[in-house]
Amino acid sequence: MIIGKETSNETPTAGQLSYQALKDHSSYDARDLALQASDDITDQLREAINNYRDRIEENEFCVVYVIASDSLLVNLKRRKFYCWPWLPSPRPNQSVFLYNKGLDRITKRLWVLPDAITMSELATPGLMVDKRYQTMQNWSKSFFNGTFWKDIRDEHKISMLSQEEWFESNRGELAKTGLDLKSPSIADSFDFSKITAGQFENTKNILSV
Question: How many domains is the chain partitioned into structurally?
Fold first, then answer.
């Protein structure tokens, strides 16, 4: 080995990949990224299902995929997968699927939401979009209209409760057990009243891991 020369089998660090992404000036459409993200994660969804399948009693549950920002590398995006016995609260950069234990497969793609700025743009009254984005536009509009749960249930012909609805309907029984009724923070909905252009990542510099 020649000292100082990189070998071909060296794996780039997260910092190196982040630096390379910052130098990438290509233009990416957040709507395309969201659609692609929901179609290219089969193995990760299955791994999440295998991890949670025996821990969730319900025959049907949600498999959730979110893209989260890294606390240190601002342009680094991390993929997170988990399963939820209720409909999770909608948030930007989120895809949600319905899994059936009896069939042992994902039966529905419940929704796919892009980043917050794109969601607000898609929900603009009178905006015309390409046919492949119309469903995503409907989901975004439903969120801002406050009709998200009703529209999702009507679209997919399901009756699954959201986390908040389940806790509310079982509040009396849960209170008797002395359990903390606060919802886990991972399901908190996003506050869209705080949207300003400077608060969000530029989709030109996205690096997924």
Answer: 1
Which tens digits make up the pLDDT trace of 48-82?
A: 999 999 999 999 999 999 987 654 445 556 788 99
* Domain membership flag for residue 62: yes
Distance in angstroms (rounded) separating the CA atoms of residues 163 and 90? 11
Query: Rounded distance, CA 69 to CA 36, Å?
Result: 18
Tell me the per-residue pLDDT of 113-137, one tens digit each, with 9 for 90 and over: 998 999 999 999 999 988 888 999 9
For 54-93, strand residue ranges (E) read 60-69, 76-84
Q: How far is CA 147 from the centre of its chain?
A: 19
Backbone torsions φ then ψ of 137, nearest 5 degrees? -65, -40
Q: Are 167 and 181 in contact (CB under 8 A)?
A: yes
Query: Model-level pTM greater than 0.90?
Result: no
